[in-house]
Amino acid sequence: MTQLREIATGLQFPEGPIAMPDGSIVLVEIKRGTLSRVTPDGKIHVVAECGGGPNGAAIGPDGCVYVCNNGGFEWHELGDLTLPGNQPANYIDGRIQRVNLSTGKVEEVYTACDGHPLRGPNDIVFDTGGGFWFTDHGKIRERDRDRTGVFYARPDGSMIKEVLFPLEAPNGIGLSPDGKRLYVAETFTGRVWYWDIAGPGELKMASPLPPGGTLLAGLPGFQLLDSLAVDGEGWVCVATLVNGGVTAISPDGKQIDHYPTPDLLTTNVCFGGVDLRTAYVTCSGTGKLYSMPWPRAGLKLAY
User: Fold this and answer.
1) Total domain count for the chain?
2) Within-domain flag for 262
3) Predicted structure pTM score
4) Domain of residue 150, CATH code
5) Strand bridging mode 214-218 / 224-230
């Protein structure tokens, strides 16, 4: 049984956790529109007002937090669960934002690529060269949804390129420990794909058919995939919806372990604590942040 410890409650659809050196967790509250900090005693402090729908987040080479802002959701209450819905009337378009942790200043870095507006940026990971990969999950409307993909960009606003298109609602994204493989989780298909990296923003295609990647794993039954993290031994640890928890997939795809949580909408995981052996998990439907021991050390991120 998963040894969960509740750290904080009352969060407004938390996501994008980052374990900080002081023991706090910086995360987004999508419904609240903020980047927030949770201290070890469970207190919640707003760092910045991002507006829209701040989603994935990562520390960049300049020490700022780069936020994938999905532009916002409609919100629904189903019993004790908060659920995101379609594109809202007050949708602000997707964007990548830079947040100064010291001042709370929010800057817009990217809102489009090659004339195409970003729709719903979702998850983000930096490489050791200082660039970042991110997914655009798109937005859903009553009778249609966006076709989207994966992008690569520089944090100074000088370059953004669409690398993969189309994917089926790409969500979680991560890099292997050696930085040579890119992983992407698709929400509705329940699949995790990977590509070998040829260079900054360049991927090797394993197939001429979209999405051109290699299938690491496809989960059986009704399981949806959200954001992900890679641990120090290269296991892909993907937050799993419906079958709430974290699903860990071995680098060869042959072993799949599930660590359950009490929330159908388990959305993200990061690693911190002593020797990076603590997993911090956002349970968004119930607005809680948990920690649990992880069987392997987490992967130290680029920044």
Assistant:
1) 1
2) no
3) 0.98
4) 2.120.10.30
5) unpaired
Rounded distance between C-alpha atoms, residue 108 and residue 90, angstroms? 18
Distance CA 130, CA 173 (A): 16
Q: Are 185 and 225 in contact (CB under 8 A)?
A: yes
pLDDT tens across the length of the chain (303 residues) = 569 999 999 999 999 999 999 999 999 999 999 999 999 999 999 999 999 999 999 999 999 999 999 999 999 999 999 999 999 999 999 999 999 999 999 999 999 999 999 999 999 999 999 999 999 999 999 999 999 999 999 999 999 999 999 999 999 999 999 999 999 999 999 999 999 999 999 999 999 998 999 999 999 999 999 999 999 999 999 999 999 999 999 999 999 999 999 999 999 999 999 899 999 999 999 999 999 999 999 999 999
Domain presence at residue 98: yes
237 in a domain, yes or no? no
Q: Does residue 227 belong to any structural domain of this protein?
A: no
State the residue range of the domain holding 182: 5-210
Is 136 within 8 Å of 121 (Cβ atoms)?
yes
The C-alpha atoms of residue 96 and residue 121 are separated, in whole angstroms, by 7
